[in-house]
Amino acid sequence: MEKAQLFWQTYLNLEREVLEVARYIYITDEITMYSSGGLVASHCKTQLETFSPHIADLLIRTCVEIEAISKELYYTLGGTKVRGAKDLFFDEDCLKLIDIKCRTHNKVVIVSCPAFNLTKDENLCFKPLREAHKRQGTDWERAYQALKHDRYSSLSQGTIKVLLRAMGALFLLNIYFKNVKLTSKYLGVNHLDFSLGSSIFAVKRPNDEYVVKIINNQDITDILHADESPFVMKYTDSCYKQILGANQEVLKEMNDYWQSQPELKEPAFIQQMGHAKEKESKDPRQRVMPFWELAQYRLRKKIPTSLPFEDRKKLLISSQEWNGRIRQQNPHLNADEITEANIQAEIDHAGLLAGIELQRRFENILMYKAFNEGYCELVLDTGNVRYNK
Fold first, then answer.
1. pLDDT at position 370 over 80
2. 189-223: buried (b, 16+ CB within 10 Å) or exposed (e) per residue?
3. DSSP classification of residue 83
4. Count of CB atoms within 10 A of residue 278's CB?
5. How far apart are CA 78 and CA 90, in angstroms?
6. 77: exposed, middle or buried (C-beta count within 10 Å: 0-12, 13-18, 19+)?
7. Is the pLDDT score of 147 beyond 70?
């Protein structure tokens, strides 16, 4: 049996025993009772503060596993102290190095077991390795040390709440030691099981910023970091290269189209683009979107202000821009709501949406590939994850 599998099987055995405890103790932070003619829920601490010799024993065994696996991870991540050295401490040495490499202080564990009726955020989601690199920096280590040295007088410290936090810490450390890696199409990531084999816990889904940036043609050369999830979500390197290449092809097609448009030489359009760039210089949030400007210009040109209102209205409601797909899918005025006061605004709005539709014609193939065909990998944040060209 591989070393990582040995630790994982031991963890699963502990899980089964914790779930057995839940058969006899209702693990909840809320009680419900009748009051004033109806059901009223109120906060309850007693269940999570329940202690017993058996719970204390489970806590000690869990923390012994934390000590053992943290030392193995220490060496896996490049720890330099001699194996078995008396001055090698699982918290100040091992968990400290693990935190430096993996930023475990910020990783969230979620209690997902339906047998536990937990409603408070502090009990449902917590960071079990926060401050764990300090001597007795966590509630579970303080309880562990107290029980180890004076079991009888410290028995009340071995509570269900502390046991869950210690188990959460052991769950996270096992994920890192097993070096779990997941692969999925981008749209399938939400369907992945982030309990990763646990019957009690799950980890957070990683955010997709390093995927979205690639889709938006933002090349990333820096190291990729996770936030509250242990995983970084990125495209596989082969998909990353394909999408970057597709981005360049789309940009070339868009540029070729743009350069071939006769409006670029017309003084009125040049003036309009100048006004747009001036707005952007004053407020960077008002970005110049050339295709949007072009579509607006074309519709304004088709429906000049010199025409009578009724003629302008007929031209607008019969135009391709007015009947465009994006406009029809979004809230818009009906023909009988067009007035002399709002017609120019509607012309500009229809032109803008036509510009968005024009731009999407070029982007649709790329987006389809990126979202439907692009494979993502979820890799553990160990301080060295990056895209490789």
1. no
2. beeeebebebebbbbbebeeebbeebbeeeeeeee
3. T
4. 11
5. 15
6. middle
7. yes
Residue 22 has pLDDT above 70, yes or no: yes
Alpha-carbon Rg for the chain, nearest whole angstrom, is: 30
| Gap between the Cα atoms of 167 and 128, Å rounded | 9
- Check pLDDT > 70 for residue 367: no
Please give the angle made by the CA atoms of 373, 374 and 380, to the nearest 5 degrees: 145
Give 25-77 as a DSSP string: S--BSEEEEEETTEEEEEE--TTTT-B-HHHHHHHHHHHHHHHHHHHHHHHHT
- Kindly tell me the sign of the dihedral angle through the C-alpha atoms of 18, 21, 25, 26: positive
Q: Any bridge partners for residue 375, and if so which?
A: 185
Query: pLDDT tens for residues 229-268?
Result: 999 999 998 888 888 777 778 788 889 999 999 999 999 9
Say how far apart CA 341 and CA 362 lie, in whole Å.
Answer: 35
The per-type count for the chain, helices as H runs and strands as E runs, is: 13, 8
Please say whether the beta carbons of 98 and 176 come within 8 A.
yes
Do the Cβ atoms of 157 and 143 come closer than 8 Å?
yes
Judge whether 321 and 354 are in contact, CB under 8 Å: yes
Residues, the chain: 389
How crowded is residue 247: how many other Cβ atoms within 10 Å of its Cβ?
19
DSSP classification of residue 90: I
**Identity of the residue numbered 368:** Y
The 10 Å Cβ neighbour count of residue 359 is 17
Contact 199, 19 (CB under 8 A): yes
Taking the domains of the chain in order of start, what are their residue ranges?
A: 3-179, 245-370
Q: What's the one-letter identity of residue 378?
A: L
